[in-house]
Amino acid sequence: MGKGIKMVSAVDTYNQPYTLENLQQKHDNHQTVPALLCDGGGCKVPVRFVPRGLRNNPGKEPSDRAAYIGLTAGAESDHKPGCKYDALGQLKTIIADQSDPDFIGAIDHGQFELRLLLLHNSLGGKSLAGSEHTPSSTGDSATRRPSVYQASGNKLDSYLRTTSDILKLRARCEADDVLKNNLILRFGDKKIRWSEFYFEPDRYEDAWKMAHRRGNQCHPFAIAGTVKQLKAPKDGGKQVNHYLNLHSEYNRADAEDIVNTFDISVGSTEAVWLAKFSEDTEIIMFGVWSVGSPRKNPYRKGTADKVTNFVNHGLTLYPKFHRQLLKVV
What we know:
By secondary structure, this protein is of the alpha+beta class. The chain has helices at 20-28, 87-97, 116-122, 153-172, 177-182, 204-214, 271-274, and strands spanning 9-12, 17-19, 36-37, 46-50, 53-55, 63-65, 68-71, 104-106, 112-115, 129-130, 147-148, 183-187, 190-192, 198-199, 221-231, 242-246, 249-250, 258-268, 282-287, 289-291, 295-300, 307-317, 325-327. β1 (9-12) and β2 form a beta hairpin. The protein is globular and about 65 Å long. Residues 128-147 are annotated as: Disordered.
């Protein structure tokens, strides 16, 4: 069984409805949480409530974990077909709605592949040639020269919409089991793991290291997080971009009082658009990222002698299209 979509409500065995807020309040008041069933439209599979808390990350500061309702651990069944929490059913709908086989193509054993090279070459990455075999390709693959794939116009808008829908689905899932088993990520001749495509707040370090290592050969990828602030450029300065900054990931201080931080931001001259993503909004950003070199910033609290050196590692997205930023709903 793959982990399914995180739910926001459920019913008990008497069909009494419960919201996340109801269940969290019971937990906080040390009251018994009832046995719960899925309320996704006649599904009624057993589900469990997971209260909000902290996620322990070895070597890093703990990160917040929001409350959610999910499939019961060890259960034998997934959500029934037609249930609104059926991740596979929703994925199949997204795939069916994408009519262009050059972007999502069918492969063996009922699987599909999402071709990221098309996005990379259209979203500001260095134009790369590849040998992605699409249904429209002809000729002998052994002698065919790699082509530079680039989408434009209505095609690109359709690709962006499909990618957004897939990422929204991934954000709602507890894990990437369903997606990685049914939708293969392809970047030219390379197969990309889902763990290299979608990064949650406790994995910003992984995202920075991957982007730094691969440079302009890196595939487009997505980062999820929570908005901290919108920072405007200084008056009279050369900087014209506004920056939407997310809450950073922090490693724990080591023996030399060095703390590595991993900072995610979105840069754009469109301040009104960025301002729509207000403080504490959960968002997903995807595209081709710019990697900043590590910068050391010493910090002394008050008059204390102790100095902590923060080493900042930055990842910045300069989106070409509004669809590259989306709110998690």
